[in-house]
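FYI - complex with magnesium ion, inputs then prediction.
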Amino acid sequence: MISVSEAEKTILAHTINLSIEECPTPDAIGRVLREDIQADRDFPPFDRVTMDGITINYQYWKNGQKKFLIEGVQTAGSPPFTLQKPDSALEIMTGAMLPTGCDVVIPVEEITFEEKDGKKFATINTPQLIQRQNIHAQGEDRKKGDILVPANTLLSQAEIAVAVSVGKSTLKVTQKPKIAIVSTGNELVGIDETPEPYQIRRSNSYALASALSKIGIKADIWHLPDDQQLIEEKMSEIFRDFDVIITSGGVSKGKKDFVPWVMEKLQVSKIFHRIKQRPGKPLWFGKKDNKVVFGLPGNPVSTMVGLFRYVMPYLREIEGIERKPLQFTVLSEDFSFDRDLTYFLSVKIINKEGRLWAKPIPGHGSGDFANLLDCDAFVELPAHEKNFLAGSVYPLIPFRNI
Ligand code: AMP
Ligand code: MG
C-alpha cells in the first residue's frame, strides 16, 4: 500500500497526451490555452480620453487663461480632430482619441459653458490641473508584441476579453479528454426503477458526471452487473473510444469485485492498488497505451474523495494547467483518528473574520453520502498524527464553491 502523497505523485507521473484543437474564442471559457496570445497593437492603442469634458493645451491654462472657445465636439469612434487655434478647446467624450494639440482633459463637472454670438465658450472652474490628466496613454498597459496570455493558461473571462480584443476569433486549446464512467454492482438500479428491499439506486455515476460537467467535460455513463464476462466484454469496447475510464465499485476484496481482474485481462498495467487512506483505500490505478483507468471504490464518500483528491488534479495535469498548491484551512474543533491512515474528514467551511474554518462533520462512514449535503470539503489529516487540535492547519479539498 502506498501513501496519499506517493499515490498523487505516481498518478501525475502517468499522464496521457491530449491533442490540440481550435475553439471559437467566445466558447473557450474553462479551456486550456495552447498558444501564446500576443498584443497586435499597444494597449490602449491610442491616447484614450477617460472623461466626458473638454480638452485643451495645458500651457495656456498654466499661463492664466481660464476661458476657451470651443471649436467642436469629438466623440468616441471618430478620427481625431486637430486644434485649429492653440488657445481653443474641444468638447471631448470618454473613449475618444486625444486630438492633436491637446494634452489635458477637464471633466464636465469642473466647467461652465456659455454661448455668445453663436459661439460656445468653456470656463474652467477648478484651481488645479495636472498635465495629461484623464488620458489613458497609448501603450501604458501593454506594448504591441507583448505576450498577453502565455500558453497553458486556464481561460477565464479576462483572457477571453483580451483574446477577442487582439482579433483572435479562435484559440488553440487542449482537447477535452473523453471520459467514460462505469459503475458496477448487482444491488444497484436506475433512477426510474423501484428498488427491491435489498437494492439501492445508483448515484455515483451521476455525482461523478455532474462534477465533471462543471469543468466542461461531458462524460458517458455505463452500468454493469457484477459479471466477470460481461464486464470484460463491455470494458474492452469502452476502452477503444475513451481516454480516461473511471469505474466505481468492484475494486475491494469482495467475491464480486472484478474490476482489477478484468483490467489484468485487458492488459491494463496496474500502477498501484490501495492507498493508505480512509475513506477510499481500495483505489486502483492503471494505464494502457495513451489511456488510464481510475478504479474508484463504490462507497459514495470514497468515490468523491478519489475524484477530488486524484482524478481532478490528474485532469488538470493532462490538460496542461500549471499545478496548483493545495489550499489550507483551520480546524474549528478537535478531532481524533487513531489509525495509521490519512483521514479525509468531511467538513463544513465557515468564514469567520476573513478566515476559513473547517468544522468536522464526520458522518457515519464512507456509505453516508447524505452527510455530504451538510459539508463543503474534505480536510486531509496526515497518517502520522492521531489528535488533530482546533486551530491547526491542514490541506483542504473543496467539493463545493466556498
Ligand atoms: P463496492 O466498492 O462495489 O464494494 O461497493 C461498496 C458500497 O458502495 C456498497 O454498499 C455499494 O452498494 C455502494 N455503491 C457502489 N456503487 C454505488 C453507486 N454507483 N451508487 C451508490 N452506491 C454505490
Ligand atoms: Mg460492488
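The chain has four domains: 4-18+176-319, 21-43+140-174, 48-136, 327-398. Residues 183, 185, 187-188, 200, 202-205, 248-250, 252, 254, 297-300, 367 surround adenosine monophosphate (ligand 1) (CB under 6 Å).
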